[in-house]
Design a protein that fits this description.
It is built from four helices and six strands; from the N terminus they run E-H-E-E-E-H-E-H-E-H. The protein starts with a strand and ends with a helix. It has one domain: 3-Layer(aba) Sandwich (Rossmann fold), CATH 3.40.50. The protein has helices spanning 15-26, 67-76, 91-103, 120-138; strands spanning 3-8, 36-38, 43-50, 53-58, 81-86, 106-110. Strand 4 (53-58), helix 2 and strand 5 (81-86) form a beta-alpha-beta unit. By secondary structure, it is an alpha/beta fold. It has a six-stranded mixed β-sheet with strand order 2-3-4-5-1-6, with helices on both faces. The longest helix is centred in the C-terminal third of the chain and has 19 residues, at 120-138.
């Protein structure tokens, strides 16, 4: 099913590391050379096959990162599932919603796990497992 999964939230809450970990867990390492670092050197864009479906990743959800252009390009490249990020409100969220609507993609928002007393790496591992289950359910 054509699906866009968007990790939303404010800056510095682990959106990019979570998307990176998801990509590393489902895309074969041989396809990683297509990854392109973006803007702040942490964000990235790549695509690869998972269970016979082309999945695209665009981790930059910051204002000014030309999100509309990059997400549209992943869709035009044939990605049936697109994983991205955006802020809680504003242009980045508007761009995600516009691309999904224009291309007939189901849009699912999620957010990273947070705790003041539980280790961030532990929470991210479990969040990524939940994302893998979500991706599996949309194939």
């Amino acid at each position: 099913m054509k699906t866009m999964i968007c990790v939303k939230g404010s800056s510095q809450i682990g959106k990019t590391p979570s998307i990176c970990d998801l990509c590393a867990s489902i895309i074969q390492e041989s396809e990683w050379p297509s990854a392109e670092r973006i803007q702040n050197k942490l964000d990235f864009e790549c695509k690869g096959h998972y269970r016979g479906v082309l999945v695209g990743f665009y981790s930059c959800g910051d204002p000014g990162c030309e999100q509309y252009k990059h997400l549209t390009a992943l869709i035009n490249d044939g990605c049936e599932i697109v994983i991205c990020s955006c802020r809680n409100w504003g242009q980045t969220r508007n761009d995600v919603e516009k691309v999904a609507e224009e291309n007939g993609y189901d849009l699912i928002y999620t957010t990273t796990y947070h705790s003041t007393s539980v280790d961030d790496d532990f929470l991210r591992r479990h969040f990524v497992k939940a994302l893998v289950d979500l991706v599996d359910s949309r194939i």
